[in-house]
Amino acid sequence: MTTETLAGDSESPFDVQVVPMASESIPILGPRLVKRSAKPLPARFVDRPNRFTARVVLRSGKLVRAHLPNPGRLTGTLVPGCQVLLDGPYPSSYRCRYKLVAAREGRVWVCTITTYVNSLFPLLLQSGLFPELPPSNLRAEVRRGQSRFDFALDSCLIELKSVTLARNGVGMFPDAITERGRRHVLELARFAQQGQPAAIIFMAQRGDVTAVTAAADIDPAFAEALRRARDAGVQLLACALWFARDGARRAWRVPVVI
Asked: Which pTM value belongs to this model?
Protein backbone atom coordinates (compact mmCIF):
# COMPACT_ATOMS: atom_id res chain seq x y z
CA MET A 1 0.00 0.00 0.00
CA THR A 2 1.28 3.45 -0.85
CA THR A 3 1.48 5.45 2.34
CA GLU A 4 2.35 8.77 3.81
CA THR A 5 3.26 9.66 7.37
CA LEU A 6 1.04 11.93 9.40
CA ALA A 7 1.87 13.68 12.63
CA GLY A 8 -1.04 13.61 15.01
CA ASP A 9 -2.08 15.46 18.14
CA SER A 10 0.90 17.19 19.71
CA GLU A 11 -0.25 16.01 23.11
CA SER A 12 0.87 12.49 22.24
CA PRO A 13 4.43 11.70 21.15
CA PHE A 14 3.13 8.39 19.76
CA ASP A 15 0.78 9.90 17.17
CA VAL A 16 2.85 9.43 14.04
CA GLN A 17 0.98 7.02 11.84
CA VAL A 18 1.08 5.55 8.37
CA VAL A 19 -2.07 6.44 6.43
CA PRO A 20 -3.22 5.57 2.89
CA MET A 21 -2.63 8.13 0.15
CA ALA A 22 -5.71 9.99 -1.09
CA SER A 23 -5.58 8.13 -4.42
CA GLU A 24 -6.32 4.87 -2.60
CA SER A 25 -8.82 6.06 -0.01
CA ILE A 26 -11.66 8.48 0.53
CA PRO A 27 -11.78 11.10 3.28
CA ILE A 28 -14.63 10.67 5.73
CA LEU A 29 -15.82 12.38 8.88
CA GLY A 30 -16.90 9.45 11.02
CA PRO A 31 -18.75 9.77 14.32
CA ARG A 32 -16.68 10.93 17.26
CA LEU A 33 -15.21 8.18 19.42
CA VAL A 34 -16.11 10.06 22.58
CA LYS A 35 -19.48 11.38 23.73
CA ARG A 36 -18.81 12.43 27.31
CA SER A 37 -15.48 14.23 27.09
CA ALA A 38 -14.42 17.02 24.75
CA LYS A 39 -11.59 14.87 23.43
CA PRO A 40 -10.24 11.37 24.11
CA LEU A 41 -8.33 10.92 27.34
CA PRO A 42 -4.96 9.15 27.05
CA ALA A 43 -4.18 6.26 29.39
CA ARG A 44 -2.16 3.04 29.61
CA PHE A 45 -3.73 -0.42 29.57
CA VAL A 46 -2.98 -2.64 32.58
CA ASP A 47 -5.17 -5.74 32.33
CA ARG A 48 -8.64 -7.09 31.61
CA PRO A 49 -10.40 -8.54 34.68
CA ASN A 50 -13.31 -9.70 32.53
CA ARG A 51 -14.57 -9.51 28.97
CA PHE A 52 -16.15 -6.06 29.27
CA THR A 53 -13.84 -4.40 31.80
CA ALA A 54 -10.31 -3.09 31.53
CA ARG A 55 -8.03 -1.56 34.12
CA VAL A 56 -6.05 1.44 32.92
CA VAL A 57 -3.73 4.05 34.39
CA LEU A 58 -4.58 7.70 33.75
CA ARG A 59 -1.92 10.32 33.12
CA SER A 60 -2.27 11.33 36.76
CA GLY A 61 -1.14 7.83 37.75
CA LYS A 62 -4.56 6.84 39.06
CA LEU A 63 -5.68 3.26 38.35
CA VAL A 64 -9.31 3.12 37.15
CA ARG A 65 -11.72 0.67 35.56
CA ALA A 66 -13.02 1.28 32.05
CA HIS A 67 -15.90 -0.31 30.19
CA LEU A 68 -14.65 -2.24 27.15
CA PRO A 69 -17.40 -2.32 24.49
CA ASN A 70 -15.94 -5.31 22.66
CA PRO A 71 -16.47 -9.00 23.52
CA GLY A 72 -13.56 -10.16 21.33
CA ARG A 73 -10.14 -11.18 22.61
CA LEU A 74 -8.35 -8.18 21.05
CA THR A 75 -5.25 -10.36 20.83
CA GLY A 76 -2.16 -8.35 20.02
CA THR A 77 -3.99 -5.07 20.53
CA LEU A 78 -4.64 -4.85 24.26
CA VAL A 79 -1.24 -5.65 25.74
CA PRO A 80 0.01 -4.40 29.11
CA GLY A 81 1.42 -0.91 28.80
CA CYS A 82 -0.14 -0.06 25.43
CA GLN A 83 -1.57 3.38 24.89
CA VAL A 84 -5.37 3.61 24.95
CA LEU A 85 -7.97 6.33 24.57
CA LEU A 86 -10.88 6.82 26.97
CA ASP A 87 -14.21 8.56 27.04
CA GLY A 88 -15.38 10.00 30.35
CA PRO A 89 -15.55 10.48 33.19
CA TYR A 90 -19.14 9.30 33.50
CA PRO A 91 -21.20 9.98 36.65
CA SER A 92 -20.15 8.24 39.86
CA SER A 93 -23.31 6.12 39.69
CA TYR A 94 -21.80 4.23 36.73
CA ARG A 95 -20.01 0.98 37.46
CA CYS A 96 -17.16 2.13 35.19
CA ARG A 97 -16.64 5.87 34.91
CA TYR A 98 -14.63 5.51 31.69
CA LYS A 99 -15.03 3.75 28.35
CA LEU A 100 -12.06 2.38 26.41
CA VAL A 101 -12.66 3.50 22.81
CA ALA A 102 -9.34 2.82 21.05
CA ALA A 103 -5.96 1.18 21.56
CA ARG A 104 -2.64 1.77 19.88
CA GLU A 105 -1.09 -1.19 18.07
CA GLY A 106 2.14 -0.40 16.28
CA ARG A 107 1.57 2.75 14.25
CA VAL A 108 -2.24 2.73 14.10
CA TRP A 109 -5.20 3.27 16.36
CA VAL A 110 -7.57 0.30 16.62
CA CYS A 111 -11.16 1.21 17.44
CA THR A 112 -12.46 -1.03 20.23
CA ILE A 113 -16.13 -0.06 19.88
CA THR A 114 -17.74 -2.99 18.07
CA THR A 115 -20.88 -1.02 17.16
CA TYR A 116 -18.95 1.93 15.70
CA VAL A 117 -19.20 0.39 12.24
CA ASN A 118 -23.01 0.43 12.43
CA SER A 119 -23.08 4.20 12.89
CA LEU A 120 -20.45 4.68 10.16
CA PHE A 121 -21.94 2.41 7.50
CA PRO A 122 -24.64 4.82 6.18
CA LEU A 123 -21.96 7.46 5.67
CA LEU A 124 -19.79 5.03 3.69
CA LEU A 125 -22.77 4.14 1.50
CA GLN A 126 -23.42 7.80 0.75
CA SER A 127 -19.73 8.32 -0.04
CA GLY A 128 -19.90 5.66 -2.76
CA LEU A 129 -17.43 3.27 -1.15
CA PHE A 130 -19.75 0.38 -1.97
CA PRO A 131 -21.09 1.01 -5.48
CA GLU A 132 -22.56 -2.51 -5.47
CA LEU A 133 -25.01 -1.24 -2.85
CA PRO A 134 -26.84 1.95 -3.94
CA PRO A 135 -27.75 3.99 -0.83
CA SER A 136 -31.54 3.84 -1.12
CA ASN A 137 -34.18 2.76 1.37
CA LEU A 138 -31.70 1.75 4.05
CA ARG A 139 -33.25 0.20 7.14
CA ALA A 140 -31.45 -0.81 10.33
CA GLU A 141 -32.00 -3.81 12.62
CA VAL A 142 -34.07 -5.89 10.19
CA ARG A 143 -35.49 -9.21 11.37
CA ARG A 144 -35.66 -12.17 8.99
CA GLY A 145 -36.25 -15.74 10.03
CA GLN A 146 -34.69 -16.41 13.43
CA SER A 147 -32.12 -13.62 13.19
CA ARG A 148 -31.89 -9.87 13.19
CA PHE A 149 -29.50 -8.37 10.63
CA ASP A 150 -27.72 -5.05 10.83
CA PHE A 151 -29.28 -3.48 7.73
CA ALA A 152 -31.48 -4.07 4.72
CA LEU A 153 -30.92 -2.04 1.54
CA ASP A 154 -34.07 -2.38 -0.52
CA SER A 155 -34.36 -6.20 -0.56
CA CYS A 156 -30.66 -6.88 0.21
CA LEU A 157 -29.89 -8.12 3.73
CA ILE A 158 -26.59 -6.79 5.10
CA GLU A 159 -24.55 -8.03 8.04
CA LEU A 160 -21.53 -6.04 9.25
CA LYS A 161 -18.48 -7.61 10.90
CA SER A 162 -16.11 -5.46 12.96
CA VAL A 163 -12.51 -6.59 12.39
CA THR A 164 -9.82 -5.71 14.95
CA LEU A 165 -7.33 -8.57 14.59
CA ALA A 166 -4.63 -8.34 11.91
CA ARG A 167 -1.68 -10.51 10.98
CA ASN A 168 0.93 -9.24 8.54
CA GLY A 169 -1.45 -6.63 7.18
CA VAL A 170 -4.39 -9.02 6.75
CA GLY A 171 -7.52 -8.48 8.81
CA MET A 172 -8.75 -11.66 10.48
CA PHE A 173 -12.30 -12.41 11.60
CA PRO A 174 -13.27 -13.56 14.13
CA ASP A 175 -10.75 -13.20 16.95
CA ALA A 176 -12.79 -15.56 19.14
CA ILE A 177 -15.29 -18.33 18.42
CA THR A 178 -18.61 -16.79 17.40
CA GLU A 179 -21.58 -19.13 17.27
CA ARG A 180 -23.94 -16.19 16.71
CA GLY A 181 -21.83 -14.95 13.80
CA ARG A 182 -21.76 -18.41 12.22
CA ARG A 183 -25.53 -18.70 12.53
CA HIS A 184 -26.05 -15.33 10.83
CA VAL A 185 -23.77 -16.32 7.94
CA LEU A 186 -25.60 -19.62 7.41
CA GLU A 187 -28.97 -17.87 7.47
CA LEU A 188 -27.78 -15.42 4.82
CA ALA A 189 -26.58 -18.38 2.75
CA ARG A 190 -30.01 -19.97 3.00
CA PHE A 191 -31.75 -16.72 1.99
CA ALA A 192 -29.34 -16.28 -0.95
CA GLN A 193 -30.13 -19.81 -2.18
CA GLN A 194 -33.80 -18.79 -2.18
CA GLY A 195 -33.05 -15.74 -4.34
CA GLN A 196 -32.78 -13.12 -1.57
CA PRO A 197 -29.88 -10.67 -2.16
CA ALA A 198 -27.48 -10.65 0.78
CA ALA A 199 -24.08 -9.22 1.69
CA ILE A 200 -21.54 -9.58 4.49
CA ILE A 201 -19.28 -6.56 4.92
CA PHE A 202 -16.09 -6.85 6.95
CA MET A 203 -15.01 -3.46 8.31
CA ALA A 204 -11.44 -3.40 9.60
CA GLN A 205 -11.28 -0.82 12.38
CA ARG A 206 -7.58 -0.18 11.85
CA GLY A 207 -5.52 1.55 9.20
CA ASP A 208 -2.92 -1.13 8.40
CA VAL A 209 -5.07 -3.70 6.59
CA THR A 210 -4.80 -4.57 2.88
CA ALA A 211 -7.11 -7.63 2.83
CA VAL A 212 -9.53 -9.53 5.07
CA THR A 213 -9.93 -13.26 5.56
CA ALA A 214 -11.57 -15.76 7.90
CA ALA A 215 -9.48 -16.76 10.92
CA ALA A 216 -9.89 -20.48 10.31
CA ASP A 217 -7.40 -21.38 13.03
CA ILE A 218 -9.55 -19.57 15.60
CA ASP A 219 -13.04 -20.54 14.41
CA PRO A 220 -12.99 -23.17 11.64
CA ALA A 221 -16.79 -23.49 11.76
CA PHE A 222 -17.19 -19.79 10.90
CA ALA A 223 -14.67 -20.09 8.06
CA GLU A 224 -16.60 -23.02 6.60
CA ALA A 225 -19.90 -21.14 6.95
CA LEU A 226 -18.38 -18.19 5.11
CA ARG A 227 -17.32 -20.43 2.21
CA ARG A 228 -20.84 -21.83 2.04
CA ALA A 229 -22.27 -18.31 1.98
CA ARG A 230 -19.93 -17.28 -0.84
CA ASP A 231 -20.90 -20.36 -2.86
CA ALA A 232 -24.58 -19.61 -2.26
CA GLY A 233 -24.20 -16.14 -3.77
CA VAL A 234 -23.78 -13.92 -0.70
CA GLN A 235 -21.61 -10.91 -1.57
CA LEU A 236 -18.45 -10.71 0.55
CA LEU A 237 -17.18 -7.13 0.75
CA ALA A 238 -14.63 -5.39 2.96
CA CYS A 239 -13.09 -2.04 3.76
CA ALA A 240 -10.42 -0.67 6.08
CA LEU A 241 -10.68 2.42 8.24
CA TRP A 242 -7.96 4.79 9.36
CA PHE A 243 -8.58 6.42 12.74
CA ALA A 244 -7.35 9.70 14.10
CA ARG A 245 -7.72 10.26 17.83
CA ASP A 246 -11.31 11.47 17.45
CA GLY A 247 -12.76 9.05 14.89
CA ALA A 248 -12.52 7.43 11.46
CA ARG A 249 -11.05 9.80 8.89
CA ARG A 250 -10.26 7.64 5.85
CA ALA A 251 -11.74 4.50 4.31
CA TRP A 252 -10.75 2.25 1.43
CA ARG A 253 -11.85 -1.03 -0.08
CA VAL A 254 -9.87 -4.21 0.45
CA PRO A 255 -10.45 -7.71 -0.95
CA VAL A 256 -11.95 -10.63 0.97
CA VAL A 257 -9.71 -13.68 0.56
CA ILE A 258 -11.38 -17.02 1.22
From this structure: 0.91
